[in-house]
Amino acid sequence: AMDTDLSSQDRKDLDKFIKFFALKTVQVIVQARLGEKICTRSSSSPTGSDWFNLAIKDIPEVTHEAKKALAGQLPAVGRSMCVEISLKTSEGDSMELEIWCLEMNEKCDKEIKVSYTVYNRLSLLLKSLLAITRVTPAYRLSRKQGHEYVILYRIYFGEVQLSGLGEGFQTVRVGTVGTPVGTITLSCAYRINLAFMSTRQFERTPPIMGIIIDHFVDRPYPSSSPMHPCNYRAGEDNGAVYPSVEDSQEVCTTSFSTSPPSQCVFTVTKAHFQTPPPVVTDTLKVPVLGLAFSHQLSSSRLSYQPAALGVGSADMGYPVLFAGGLNAAHPHQLIGPGKEGGVPPVPSQPAHGTQADQERMCTPLDGVHYSAATPSSSEDTETVSNSSEGKCSSPHDLLETIFIRKVGAFVNKPINQVTMANLDIPFAMFAPKNVELEDNDPMVNPPESPETESPLQGSLHSEGSSGSSTGNTHDDFVMIDFKPAFSKDDILPMDLGTFYREFQNPPQLSSLSIDIGAQSMAEDLDSLPEKLAVHEKNVKEFDAFVETLQ
Amino acid sequence: PLSSRCCARPGAAPAMNCRAEVLEVSVEGRQVEEAMLAVLHTVLLHRSTGKFHYKKEGTYSIGTVGTQDVDCDFIDFAYVRVSSEELDRALRKAVGEFKDALRSSGSDGMGQISLEFYQKKKSRWPFSDECIPWELWTIKVNVVNLANEQERQICREKVGEKLCEKIINIVEVMNRHEYLPKMPTQSEVDNVFDTSLKDVQPYLYKISYQITDSLGTSVTTTMRRLIKDTLAL
């Protein structure tokens, strides 16, 4: 493609847009296969680092893999960037589910404005990608991963390889954007056999995979790049440190011009961020809104399995820390409800147990950040996170302060002593009791188990214990004073049992007694024809009235 | 009409160069809200930008749009929406009214909800501003009644699959890169975008709905017949 018509500045901008578009595309796809609900916050003030004006988090490992695959090149004709999504059972069998392809063809659009139209259309394309990643069959599978299987991703650059998808695979086009150097196209080819396999079926009988025999042959193409689980654990890989994304990242401060309307000025500046080492998460909101979870829990249909407690090779460790590289302007990258399940034993060191060095296991992104689960709490989580932001501690400590969610109203005891009462969330007064009770109940928290101290814990502890509404946080034994919300009554205090017995046999309603009922019914019936006649007469009025409502 | 910004009568035919898309879904009563929200949110995801901040010399910067996943309770389906509580509330209100209207119209349960994007064109006094629609999405809804739990379960899955198709259709339309209003200057921005929300900026839109019964007759006839029928003994 001839690009002599393109100014060098435009060319540079275009290359940059394509590069970051490719990186964001990978992020969206992998994040959509993590098995979690993704939530990011809108921000009315531009922060300068949100490419394409969209809040898409950057998982450093994923960016690292993408950059490795691209090796400094950009998608071009014959050189496509592909993200392969596959499924691997706990027995080690794997199957390709989808191939997402970012391709470039030769059809150029010379007239299009790079800094403006192309940029906005790339933004639109990312939005389409967000939408489409939720509608292919692999999405539902990935939401149920963890116990029987995990979802892995692999990025490669070069020729698209679709043969692993089996026969009759389908393609969905996400969209295209024309540029002066070619047309960018984004599409997904996905296996359809699974479309007929409901995920329930799959969970119940793992051997069903064996029926589709041809999928379990050795991979025809030896992986030129290793497979990765969509989830990952920081602190793994012998302390491999990923360069934080922003180190050499160029930041785009988007500035558009409307004067004169036909011209657009786009300024891009380079900025270097000073970021903490990758291990630290920037938003360790440990005082998890336990109540918010319960709320999410009850409305979520999805059942997750406990984070792989010893499921063979799928030894999922925890918690996933979204390590570094994120600047403080984005404190609200929420990863939605994590997996329900039993309390995993808090590891004293980061859990290992992956099969290959490269194969970081998919772990559920257990609740590192929670915010905005309920509308009114979104503001409040800010205050809570302040104490933890920027604190850097070893992976061990961080792991232990992660709050793991659990099914049920009595949420898992947080390791730190935060109570709900001091958090300004709705129904806060109903929540803390459960949390505190668990803390003090020796059955749940045997006094002899030591609580490890970490700087994070310490600060959170002090946050939590101030403003605690009930004073009984330090008794060893606690009488469980069951105060269900509905029977709360200051005027007539009674316990649940009494309440129930008392209202179990209410008196009959008078209108239901036969005599009175029959009489008024007869009267009503008699007067009906009259009433109807009146209404019929006034039909025109009614019609006119209804017209005015339309 | 749920937004009285414009003078155009709801249900009026769109202007000549207004692109119109129609989607049809058959759902169970309790699935109406989620299905409508899924479609409306998907459209608005593509038709919302970050807040504009105008600076001197006619330049402007754009805020950031966050997104979040929404799981449906009555449909095996999940979708992505813009992270804006205000926008979500507005859509829920509209869809709630539509659902109530559908319900009270009787057992036939057919109707349609429309999402129209328009531009305002200022007119001189004494003429009021013109609203010029440039994109109209219509979702035709047919409410079905199911007999038992097994049918309901199948419906959950089927409607989920249908909605996946609808999302793909919507994305196809969006990808055509057809007419979009030109980016406005500061003085014109309220003629193109809804700037009333604090965190995102959708194009100016309005939502309206119509209920029809199976014979296609108007609401009045239906109501009259309904009153008569229930009282007939």
Automatic annotation (TrEMBL), chain A:
<feature type="compositionally biased region" description="Low complexity">
    <location>
        <begin position="458"/>
        <end position="471"/>
    </location>
</feature>
<comment type="similarity">
    <text>Belongs to the ATG13 family. Metazoan subfamily.</text>
</comment>
<dbReference type="GO" id="GO:1990316">
    <property type="term" value="C:Atg1/ULK1 kinase complex"/>
</dbReference>
<dbReference type="GO" id="GO:0010506">
    <property type="term" value="P:regulation of autophagy"/>
</dbReference>
<dbReference type="GO" id="GO:0005829">
    <property type="term" value="C:cytosol"/>
</dbReference>
<feature type="domain" description="Autophagy-related protein 13 N-terminal">
    <location>
        <begin position="96"/>
        <end position="196"/>
    </location>
</feature>
<keyword id="KW-0963">Cytoplasm</keyword>
<dbReference type="GO" id="GO:0034727">
    <property type="term" value="P:piecemeal microautophagy of the nucleus"/>
</dbReference>
<dbReference type="InterPro" id="IPR018731">
    <property type="entry name" value="Atg13_N"/>
</dbReference>
<protein>
    <recommendedName>
        <fullName>Autophagy-related protein 13</fullName>
    </recommendedName>
</protein>
<dbReference type="GO" id="GO:0000423">
    <property type="term" value="P:mitophagy"/>
</dbReference>
<dbReference type="GO" id="GO:0034497">
    <property type="term" value="P:protein localization to phagophore assembly site"/>
</dbReference>
<keyword id="KW-0072">Autophagy</keyword>
<dbReference type="GO" id="GO:0000407">
    <property type="term" value="C:phagophore assembly site"/>
</dbReference>
<dbReference type="InterPro" id="IPR040182">
    <property type="entry name" value="ATG13"/>
</dbReference>
<dbReference type="Pfam" id="PF10033">
    <property type="entry name" value="ATG13"/>
</dbReference>
<feature type="compositionally biased region" description="Polar residues">
    <location>
        <begin position="373"/>
        <end position="391"/>
    </location>
</feature>
<feature type="region of interest" description="Disordered">
    <location>
        <begin position="332"/>
        <end position="394"/>
    </location>
</feature>
<dbReference type="InterPro" id="IPR036570">
    <property type="entry name" value="HORMA_dom_sf"/>
</dbReference>
<feature type="region of interest" description="Disordered">
    <location>
        <begin position="438"/>
        <end position="472"/>
    </location>
</feature>
<dbReference type="GO" id="GO:0042127">
    <property type="term" value="P:regulation of cell population proliferation"/>
</dbReference>
TrEMBL record, chain B:
<keyword id="KW-0072">Autophagy</keyword>
<dbReference type="Pfam" id="PF07855">
    <property type="entry name" value="ATG101"/>
</dbReference>
<dbReference type="GO" id="GO:1990316">
    <property type="term" value="C:Atg1/ULK1 kinase complex"/>
</dbReference>
<dbReference type="GO" id="GO:0019901">
    <property type="term" value="F:protein kinase binding"/>
</dbReference>
<comment type="similarity">
    <text>Belongs to the ATG101 family.</text>
</comment>
<dbReference type="InterPro" id="IPR012445">
    <property type="entry name" value="ATG101"/>
</dbReference>
<protein>
    <recommendedName>
        <fullName>Autophagy-related protein 101</fullName>
    </recommendedName>
</protein>
<dbReference type="GO" id="GO:0000045">
    <property type="term" value="P:autophagosome assembly"/>
</dbReference>
<dbReference type="GO" id="GO:0000407">
    <property type="term" value="C:phagophore assembly site"/>
</dbReference>
